[in-house]
Amino acid sequence: MDKNVGSADKVVRIVVGVALIAFALFGPADIAWKWVGWIGVVPILTAVMGWCPAYSILGLRTCPMEKKSA
């Protein structure tokens, strides 16, 4: 499993994840779909692991390629 999530991408994922979880915890009580905020766990996990399964499927990567020695 090669890393495919770069530094800037990690920061964005963590910020979005924390914002979604904060919405789930502290959002208005009368909203029935607050559970959607718990989806914020996914971008945090992908940032911590440095690997995104969707990027693998789509062939994307935001991290620099590592040089392989011969």
UniProtKB/TrEMBL annotation:
Where are the bilayer-spanning segments? 12-29, 35-58
Is Membrane one of the keywords UniProt gives this record? yes
Q: Which domain of life is it from?
A: Bacteria
Task: Give the Pfam families listed for this entry.
Answer: YgaP-like_TM (PF11127)
Keyword terms: Membrane, Transmembrane, Transmembrane helix
Inner membrane protein YgaP-like transmembrane domain residues: 1-65
Output this protein's name.
DUF2892 domain-containing protein
